[in-house]
Amino acid sequence: MQWPLLDSHCHLDALAFDGDREQVMLAALSQGVQGIVVPGTHAHSWPTLLAQCRSASALHLWPACGLHPLFIAEHTDADLDTLAMHLRDDSELVAVGEIGLDRYEAALITPALWRKQQQFFEQQLVLAQQHDKPVIIHARRAHAEIMRCIQRVGFRRGGVVHAFSGSLEEARRYIAHGFVLGLGGALTYPQARRLREIATRIDLTHLLIETDAPDMVPWSYRDHHADGRVRQVGERVRNSPAYLPAVFETFCQLRPESPEVLARAFWANTQRTFNLPLAPFSSPQRA
Ligand SMILES: [Zn+2]
After folding, report:
1. What confidence tens digit (pLDDT) does each residue in 111-142 have?
2. Signal sequence: where (predicted)?
């Protein structure tokens, strides 16, 4: 049975898809994926992202614009003005993202860049609230700091903490502040015990599925490229929105609800989180 699914986080505008973006979308559609939220990372890439989302015909692409913390050194104050302009002029934007804080790499947390990460995160939270948009949060080793920023600016609009990797307690704190949690490829790895506990203990209303493609390839796809070639040492397998069912199936194995209940919930949660203009979930015809 193939269920209608929505990918709540996929970087379909990434260079990795430039050679075959159309085929990737068709492959996703053939696996039941009917729509994708495409978060932005740099101001210079937003116009292309918006154009790609507008021209997609095979499936729905919903754009978000944001300044990603991994590229904090590149962002300028003028980029924040550009973000405000897009929020004013482009009604199809469904969120501000991908934004957040990242403490994983030493280069990102020099005193100056760590201060800049927090300033840009807070200013984008303020813009999202002014324009009544949810946010897409990237949070790596920075959950307490993210919560402090949210409280400091009084952000109440909510959104998603994507590729969530914190504790159950941190998960509950985000939910209490109106956020849902996005889970993807990492959940499919059998050793992901803490994440799997979160996937089962958190109420279904607060969960989304995502691929984060081209990154975070699911466990079952980790050793082969899309054309069937075996991955060589040192090569990375490109993740694809067509692999979203692998994330969905992991949820089906872990949780007590039926696949139909899960598929309906993920669909409704994604639609609600991003206020998507979308037809209601319809069950596939049984063969
Ligand atoms: Zn991302």
Report:
1. 999 999 999 999 999 999 999 999 999 999 99
2. none
CB 114, CB 81: distance < 8 Å: no
- Indicate the CATH number for domain 5-273: 3.20.20.140
CA of 184 to the centre of ligand 1 (A): 11
Phi, psi of 159 (to 5 degrees): 150, -150
46, 90, 89, 36: which is closest to 71 by C-alpha?
Answer: 46
33 Cα to the center of ligand 1, angstroms: 18
Spatial distance between the Cα atoms of 199 and 265, rounded to a whole number of angstroms: 14
Whether 177 has a binding-site annotation, put simply, is no
Å from CA of 286 to ligand 1 middle? 34
Beta bridge partners of 62: 37
| Tens-place pLDDT, residues 229-258 | 999 988 899 999 999 999 999 999 999 999
Within 13 Å and on the Cβ side, how many CA atoms surround 91?
A: 1
| Residue from 201, 205, 199 nearest 178 by CA | 205
Dihedral sign of CA atoms 173, 176, 178, 180 in order: positive
Instruction: State the distance from the centre of ligand 1 to the C-alpha of 68, rounded, in angstroms.
Output: 8
The domain spans of the chain are 5-273
**224: annotated binding-site residue?**
no
Q: How far is the CA of 39 from the centre of ligand 1 (A)?
A: 7
Instruction: Tell me: is residue 138 an annotated ligand-binding position.
Output: yes
Task: Identify the DSSP state of 63.
Answer: E
Known binding residue 9? Answer is yes
| Residues 266 and 5: beta-carbon distance below 8 Å | yes
Distance 223 CA to ligand 1 centre (A): 22
Ligand 1: distance of its center to the CA of 166 in Å? 16
Angle at 142 between CA 146 and CA 97, to 5 degrees: 55
